[in-house]
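Entry type: protein chain
Record version: 2
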Amino acid sequence: MQAAPSSPCVADLPEQGVCVPVTPLVPVRLGPDEPTLWCKAEYMHPSGSTKDRIAAHILCKAWREGRLRPGGWVAEASSGSTSIAMAMVCARLGLRFAAFMPEGVSQERAWMIRGHGGQVNLTPRGEGIVGALRACRDWARTHEAFEPRQFENPENAQAHRLGTMREALRQVPGGRFDAYVSGVGTGGTLVGMRLGLMDAGVRARPFAARPVAGSGGACGDCFAAVEQCSFSARIPGVLDGMSHLYRPEDFESLQVIEVSDEEALRTTRRLIQAGHPVGPSSGLNVAAALQAARSLPAGSLVLTVLCDRMERYFSTELFTRWAPVAG
């Protein structure tokens, strides 16, 4: 069994008031004939998403190492949750934050970044997140800004190794899972969960959730041209080929589960009606986890993540095309 690394860095900076709380692990059962899943309620973080973990971990580590000083700039390319989390942590540390996002992201996300004091820089819609990454790196060079680089920074996965999975193993009855499920954007969640299980000597089956385009018709107010690398235009943050952290060959018995974007959105609405105010990537994770659970022996414990809160999607089709969900 591998030795676990030291604990997350946020506790080392109490004077800045940076805090990433332990989130609940909740059993979720969406219907009497559905399996029970174990879901990490990451939407309960202060800025409303699991990205609080990586923002606090990466920025506090850079602060300790002297790579950040009060008043310095941080720049990141992100279509939403990571930029919101970075803006919040920068505000607590007395740093300035610049977000680079493609035109067309939901306006709520830009408002939240500005609310935390961040600067929002919109890049051409047609260039997608790749264009935002290019603009961010050009700007960072001229402003001597620190770049977290979430798609390639191994500390992204470390935040989930030391936080998400370590917490979940303490919280689940019996201290183990039989399987774990996550979509892949930066790859940090799935990689960190794998590493955390290895630290604990727990073997669990990995499943990667992938959204695929359904037959929902045109999606003029969704994410079609914004995230050019998305598997589906309708599920933000789950990207194809962007991660430098996630390597499928590192996962023993990895299975990819494809979920139609229609099913992901429908599952998101079911979660909201069940009292979990989440966004589309959470619906994707849960829909895939339900498929995984059905493929495993009865009573298997399946872990997944409820990634972020629904408020940042009010102007998207998740709500503008809402239809009552039965069951």
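Comment: Strands lie at 25-28, 37-41, 73-77, 96-102, 119-123, 179-183, 205-212, 255-260, 302-306.
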